[in-house]
Specification:
The chain is of the alpha/beta class. It folds into 2 domains: about 240 residues, FAD/NAD(P)-binding domain, CATH 3.50.50; about 210 residues, 2-Layer Sandwich (Cholesterol Oxidase, domain 2). It is about 25% helix and about 20% strand. Strands 1, 2, 7, 8, 9, 10 and 21 form a 7-stranded mixed sheet that branches. A 7-stranded mixed sheet has the order 3-4-15-16-17-14-20. Strand 1, helix 1 and strand 2 form a beta-alpha-beta unit. Helix 10 packs across helix 11. It is globular. About 55% of the residues are buried. The structure holds flavin-adenine dinucleotide. This is FAD/NAD(P)-binding domain-containing protein. One of its GO terms (molecular function) is oxidoreductase activity, acting on CH-OH group of donors. It comes from Ophiobolus disseminans. Keywords: FAD, Flavoprotein, Oxidoreductase, Signal.
C-alpha cells in the first residue's frame, strides 16, 4: 500500500549529490521526494546543537566553520551516523557529510575526467555541469568576512619551502584550467563558505528546491530497500524513525524513477538489501530476512560495492620557530577570536583550520598518481608544542589499491580500504614526500619522520600503521562505478528505472571529493533527463 500519492522521482539521501538531483528534478517539473534518515544540521534546517558562546545567533555548530574539528570528539546534535546504520564515520543529517566536513572545495583537474571517466563524462562533456555548479554554489579562498587572512605563519613557511624551494607555482587553486590542473601548484585552500559561514548544497540548491510546490523533503526517513517488480523499481520501503519496525511504502508513478544518493558506502548496502549485488552476499543476508525479492529475481552484480576507495593519509608533524600554532576550541575559544567571529564573521573561526594546499603528480612508467598536501594550523597527537603544524599527505587519483563494501553480520555496510595493497602506491606517495623533503629549509623540521629519510625508509614508514600513517579520511567513493555497476546514464545495470548518483559512481579523484561529486550529480541529471523513458 502506497503512503500518499505516487512521485515522479524519489531520491534517497540528502548529501550533496542527492540535494542537487532533487533540486534539478523538481526544477524540471518532476514531483520529487527527497528522503533523509538523519535530522537537522544547519540553523536554517532547524539545527540548534552548538556551544554556549554561539547562543542567541542564527547559527548552529554546523554553520561555524571553525567548529569543524570538534566533530571528531563531540557528538552533540546527532550529525554523524550511528554504528547500527553504517560502520564508518559519515554525516547522517541534512547535507550528508557536507554538513560535517571541512568544506574544502577543490575542482578536480581536467585530466581526471579525461583519464578515468567514460565517453560522455570527459572534460569537454563536464563543462556545462561545472558551470552550473559554479553559478549556484559560492566558494572562496579568503573566507574571513573582513577580507583579512588569519593564521598565516604556517602559510608563509610552507610557501618559502614549496614555492621558493621546491618549485611549486603559487596560484588561486580553482581558477582557470592552468591553475586547477593540480600539477605542482600551491595556494590558499578554497572552501565552500559564504559570509564567514559554512555554505554548501543545503544553503544553495536545497533552498531553491524548498521553494517549489512539487518538492518535498522528509527527514528521519530511513530507506531500507528499493521495492521492485523484477527489473522495474516501484518505490522504496521506509522505516520511520521512532517506530519499532514499522515500515511504509513511498511509490513512484509508472515511468517514475528511484535515485539512490546514499553515499559510497550506503548506496551499495541499499542495492544489496534490494537483491542487487554479489549473490554470495545476497545469500547471506537473505538468510537474515534482509532481502525481500525472491532469489530468481536477484540481479547478480559483483561490481556493487567493489573497488571502493578512500585516500590513504599520512600526517607529517613539522616544527618551525617562525610558526604560531593555533588550536580550535568548541566551548571556550580565545575571547578575542570568539568576538571577532560573533561580531564580524571573521578571524580563525571563519575557516576549518587548513591554511595551505598543494598537489603534484608522480609518474610511474605510463601511469600517474596524484598526491595532495594540506597543511593544518596545529600539531597532532604527541606533537602539540607551539610552532608545530600538521601536513596531511593524501594519495589520490591513479592509485591501484581499492577495497570492498561488505556487510557485517547484521547486514550493515562495512568498507575496507586495503591501502597500499599494491606496493607501487606507497612508492608513489613516498616519492611525493621525498621530493618535497629534499627542499626543506634548515628552519623547518619534521618531528615524526627523519628529514633525510631515504625513499625506501619513507615507503616502509608510511605503509606501516601508526597514529600518523595509513589513516582513513572518509572520502569514500568509487563503490558503484560507471561501466560495471551503473551504465553511462548512472542507471543500475539490470534495472530499468533505478539509478545511483553520488560519490559511488566517481572514479578516485585528484582532489577531496565534494566538489567533484557535485559536478557528477549535475552531469548525471543532464543525462537522466535526456533519457526517453
Ligand atoms: C569528517 C569528514 C570530512 C570531510 N572533509 C571533506 C572536505 O573538506 N572536502 C571534501 O571535498 N570532502 C570532504 N569529505 C568528503 C565529502 O563530504 C563526501 O565525499 C561527500 O559528502 C559525499 O557526498 P554523497 O552525496 O556521495 O554522500 P553523503 O555526503 O554521504 O550523503 C549521503 C546521505 O544519505 C543519507 N542516507 C544514507 N542511507 C540512507 C537511507 N537508507 N535512507 C535515507 N537516507 C540515507 C545519509 O544520512 C546522508 O545524509 C569529508 C568527509 C567526512 C566524513
Amino acid at each position: 500500500v502506497c503512503s500518499g500519492d505516487p512521485w515522479d522521482v524519489i531520491i534517497v539521501g540528502s548529501g550533496p549529490a542527492g540535494i542537487i538531483v532533487a533540486d534539478r528534478m523538481s526544477e524540471a517539473g518532476k514531483k520529487t521526494l527527497l528522503l533523509e534518515q538523519g535530522g537537522p544540521s544547519y540553523y536554517t534546517t532547524g539545527g540548534r546543537a552548538r556551544p554556549n558562546w554561539v547562543d542567541n545567533t542564527e547559527l548552529s555548530r554546523v554553520d561555524v566553520p571553525g567548529l569543524y574539528k570538534s566533530i571528531f570528539s563531540n557528538s552533540e546534535g546527532n550529525l554523524t551516523c550511528p554504528p547500527d546504520i553504517v560502520n564508518s564515520f559519515q554525516g547522517c543529517t541534512v547535507g550528508g557529510s557536507t554538513a560535517i566536513n571541512a568544506g574544502l572545495f577543490f575542482q578536480p583537474p581536467a585530466s581526471d575526467w579525461d583519464r578515468y571517466f567514460p565517453d560522455g563524462w570527459k572534460n569537454s562533456d563536464m563543462q556545462s555541469a561545472i558551470k552550473k555548479l559554479g553559478a549556484k554554489q559560492p566558494s572562496t579562498d579568503n573566507p574571513s568576512y573582513d577580507g583579512k587572512r588569519y593564521l598565516q605563519s604556517g602559510y608563509v613557511v610552507a610557501r618559502q619551502w614549496l614555492v621558493e624551494g621546491a618549485g611549486y607555482k603559487e596560484v588561486a587553486l580553482n581558477d582557470g584550467p592552468e591553475n586547477h590542473c593540480k600539477s605542482k601548484v600551491f595556494g590558499h585552500p578554497v572552501y565552500n563558505y559564504e559570509g564567514g559561514q559554512r555554505s554548501g548544497p543545503v544553503k544553495t540548491y536545497l533552498q531553491s528546491a524548498l521553494q517549489r510546490e512539487n518538492f518535498s523533503l522528509k527527514t528521519g526517513a530511513r530507506v531500507l530497500r528499493v521495492s521492485r517488480d523484477s527489473e522495474t523499481a516501484t518505490g522504496v520501503e521506509v522505516q520511520s524513525s521512532g517506530s519499532n519496525n514499522a515500515t511504509l511504502e513511498h511509490c513512484i508513478k509508472e515511468g517514475g524513477r528511484v535515485i539512490l544518493s546514499a553515499g559510497a558506502i550506503l548506496s551499495p548496502q541499499l542495492l544489496m538489501w534490494s537483491g542487487i549485488g554479489d549473490s554470495e552476499i545476497l545469500t547471506n543476508i537473505s538468510a537474515q530476512g534482509l532481502v525481500k525479492v525472491p532469489s530468481p529475481d536477484w540481479i547478480n552484480n559483483t561490481a556493487v560495492g567493489d573497488k571502493v576507495f578512500d585516500n590513504p593519509n599520512t600526517f607529517i608533524e613539522l616544527f618551525s620557530e617562525a610558526i604560531s600554532s593555533y588550536d580550535y576550541k568548541f566551548s571556550d575559544p580565545v575571547a578575542a577570536d570568539r568576538d571577532l567571529y560573533l561580531q564580524l564573521r571573521s578571524g580563525p573561526y571563519s575557516f576549518a583550520s587548513q591554511t595551505s594546499a598543494f598537489w603534484d603528480f608522480i609518474q610511474q612508467g605510463d601511469d600517474v598518481v596524484g598526491c595532495q598536501g594540506t597543511i593544518d594550523s596545529s600539531g597532532y597527537m604527541d606533537y602539540m608544542k607551539n610552532g608545530t603544524i600538521t601536513l596531511n599527505v593524501y594519495g589520490t587519483s591513479g592509485l591501484r589499491s581499492t577495497g570492498r563494501v561488505g556487510l557485517d553480520d547484521k547486514g550493515i555496510a562495512l568498507p575496507s580500504a586495503n591501502f597500499y595493497a599494491d606496493k607501487r602506491d606507497a612508492q608513489a606517495v613516498a616519492t611525493f614526500i621525498h621530493n618535497i623533503f629534499a627542499a626543506l629549509p634548515s628552519t623547518l623540521t619534521p618531528l615524526n619522520i627523519a628529514k633525510n629519510s631515504t625513499l625506501e625508509q619513507l615507503t616502509t614508514w608510511l605503509s606501516t600503521w601508526s597514529p600518523y600513517t595509513m589513516g582513513n579520511v572518509q572520502h569514500w567513493s568509487s563503490s558503484c562505478r560507471i561501466g560495471s555497476c551503473v551504465d553511462v546514464d548512472a542507471k543500475v545495470v539490470g534495472m530499468k528505472n533505478l539509478f545511483v548518483v553520488d560519490a559511488s559512481i566517481s572514479a578516485p579523484l585528484t582532489t577531496n571529493p565534494a566538489m567533484g561529486t557535485m559536478i557528477i550529480a549535475e552531469r548525471a541529471v543532464e543525462r537522466i533527463l535526456a533519457l526517453k523513458s
